[in-house]
Batch of 3 targets.
Target 1
Amino acid sequence: MDDYDDWRRQIRLLLQVQPELQIICELSDGAEAVQKAEELKPDLILLDIGLPKLNGIEAARQIRQLSPNSKIIFLSQDNSLDVVQEALNTGGLAYVHKPQAGSELLPAVKAVLRGERFVSSGLKGHKLTSSPVANPLRYHEVLFYSDDAIFLESFTRCIAAALKAGNGAIVNVTKSHQDSLIQRLKAEGVDVDRAIQRGTFIALDASETFSTIMVNGLPDPVRFLSFTNGFIEAVAETTKVERPRTVICGEGVGLLWVEGKKDAAFRVEQLCNVLAETHDVDVLCAYPLSSFHGDEDGREFQSVCAEHSSVCSR
C-alpha cells in the first residue's frame, strides 16, 4: 500500500519476477488497507508509513486485530529509529528503507515468509541486525480461565517454579488476588517473605500500574517499557543463577478487556511481545473466559491468541 502510483509500479515489477508471489490487491490509503486486509486475509502486506486517511502504523495495529495471520512489511522513506521501533512494535516483521528497496525488498520478503525479521542495512542504530535473523523465541503465554481457582492455581505454579529455581518473579494483579497468591505460594513451601525482602519477588497492584503507564486511555510505550524494564533489571540483579529468567504474571490485560478497553489490551500485549523478544522473561497473561461470552471461535478471541506463543484455556 503506497499513495504514489509510480512507486507501486516499481514494487510490483520487483515482486512479479518471483513466481511464488501473487499480488492480489494494490491500494493508496491506510483506511482501504485495513478494509481489504479484513476481507482478503493476505499472507503478506507491504505498508508505507505516510499513507493518507490512516497512517501505516495505525493501519498495522488495526490489521493485526482483523487479520492476525497476515505478515506485515513496512516500506518507508522515513529512517527515524523511533519510527522504525514504533512500526515494529505493532507486530511488523520487517522495515525496508525505500532507498534500499531495489536490493533489500526481496530478501526482506523471503525472510518474513520464513518467519524471520529484517531491518534495512541503512538503519545502523537499530537494535536488530541489518540482515535477516531468526526471530528470537518468544515466551508469551495466555491463560483463559473459567474461575478464580484455575487462575490462582496457574499463577501459583508458574511463580513457585521460578522462585524455587532461583529465578525472579513479578506479578501484576488485583489486591485480592495478590493476597490469595501469597497464601498459596506459602502453602507450596515458598518463602515469600524472604523473596520479597531479597527483591526476587515483586507484587504490583494492577490498578496502580495502569495509572502509571496510561496516557489518553492507552498504554504509552515509553512509560510502559521504562516502568517494566526497571523492575526486570531490579529482579535480575538479586538472583544468583548464572543467566536469570524473570517470570511476569499479570491479569491487567484481562481487566482492561472486561472494562471494554480492548484497544488498550491489544497494545499491552504488543508491548509484552517487545519485552519477550528483548529480555530473558517468560510472560503469562490471563483473561476470564466469560469476557468472551463463550465465543472461542470468534475474531476477537483468535486475535488475542495470535499475540501469544502459546494458549491455555481451562
Target 2
Amino acid sequence: MAVTANTNETYNESIIREDLAPALASISPTDTPVMSAIGTRNVDNTYFEWSEIDLAAAGVNTKVEGDSGLPNDAPHNAIRKGNYTNISAKVVEVSDTNQNVNGVANAQTIANQIALALKTLKRDMEYMVVGQQAASAGASGTARVSAGVPAFLTTNTDRGVGGADPTPSGAGGSGYPNASATAGTSRALTEALLKSTIASCWDEGAEPTVVFCSGTNKQVISTFTGNATRFKQAEDAKLNAAIDVYVSDFGELQIYPSRFVSTDVLVMDPNYAKIAYLQTARQKPLARTGLSERRLISAEWGIEVTSEKAHGVIADV
C-alpha cells in the first residue's frame, strides 16, 4: 500500500523523546554472602589482635591412688594473632547543573551517586574478604592491607600439586599472615575433597556450617550424589538439579555461590570470623572548589579469623 505524499512519519522526525526506563536497571551483582554470614566488631587500632587457644590432645589419664607428687600439666597458653585494617574509599563528584536537571531516574544526583558508591564499596570489601592477599603494615605513601580469610588457613587445607600454605609473621602460628598461599596445579573439585576437608575441620573440633564457592564449583557440587538418589515428584514438572544443603557425616552445610570466590572452596564456621571496623562506612562532604559537589565514602576495616582451625579450604579447583 502506498503512503500519501507529505505524510509526516516517525522516520522523518529527529526530536521524538527517547523511551527511557523510569528507573535504573543494573545487572552488576551486589550480594555479599560471606560478609552477610560473619559477624562484626569494633577495634581501636590499625593493628588489632586476638588470642587463640588450643587444648592439649586427649589421651589416657590415670593416676595412682593417694599419689602426693602429681606433676604440673603444661599450661594452656594463648598465641597472639593479628591483622591490619585497611581503608576502602570512593569519591563522587556531581556538578551543580547535573544536580538540578531532570535526569532519568535522577541517577545523576549526589544522593543516588552516594548510594551507588556505597554498594560498590561493599562489593570491594567482599572481594578482599575472600581474597588471597597477605597483610601489610603499609608505610608513608603506601596503603595498609588486611589479609583475606584464605591467608589465615593453614590447618584444614587441601591444595593442588606444588601448592603451599600461607605463612604467619610470628613463631608457632602467631602474628599476621605475611605471605599468601602458593598456588598449586589446578584440578577438578570432587566430593571426596569436600568430604575430606569437612572431616578435617571436625577432627580439629570445628563444626562448619557453610561452603562458599564459585558459580562453576557450585554447579559441580550439584552433581554430587552422596549415598542416595534424589527424587522429585513427577507432577511438579520440575527437575531438581541443584544441591543447596550438603548433609555430611558431621552436620549440614549450606552451599552458597559467591561471585568473588574463584579457585577456592571455603568451608567455614561463621562464628569464628568477623569484620573488624576501626571506622564504619560513612560519607563526608569534601571541600568545594568550584561548581560541583564532592563526597567521600569510606570505611576502615580488617578481617579477624578467631580460629583458623574452624575453617578449611580446598584450593586450586
Target 3
Amino acid sequence: MIAVVAWQLAVFSLLAAIAAVGWGFQHGFHLMLGGLAAWVPNALFALRLVLQRGRGRESNVMAFFVGEFLKLGLTVGFLVLSVNHVPDLQWVPWLVGLVASIMTPLFVGMRAA
C-alpha cells in the first residue's frame, strides 16, 4: 500500500519536473497541483488502512468504506479548491497530473500481479 502511494508521488513529480523544464514553471506547478489533489487523500487513506491493521475483520471493512468515502470527498474538495483559487489554471497539465496520480495504482497493481 505504501509502495503504491510512493509510486504515485514519484510518477507525477517526475512529470511535473519534465513539464517545468520543457514548458515552464507554471505548467509544472499546475501538473503538481493536479497530482497532489488525488495523492494527498490517497496517502491519508493508505495511512488509515495501515493503522487499522490487526483489528477485527468488521473493523477493517468499515475502515475501508469510510476511508474510501472520505478519500473521494477530499479529492473533489481539493479539485474544487484548485479550480476556484488558482489564477490562470493551466487545464491540460492539471488534468495530466490528476490522471497520472489516479492511474498509477492501476499500473503498479498490474506489475505486482
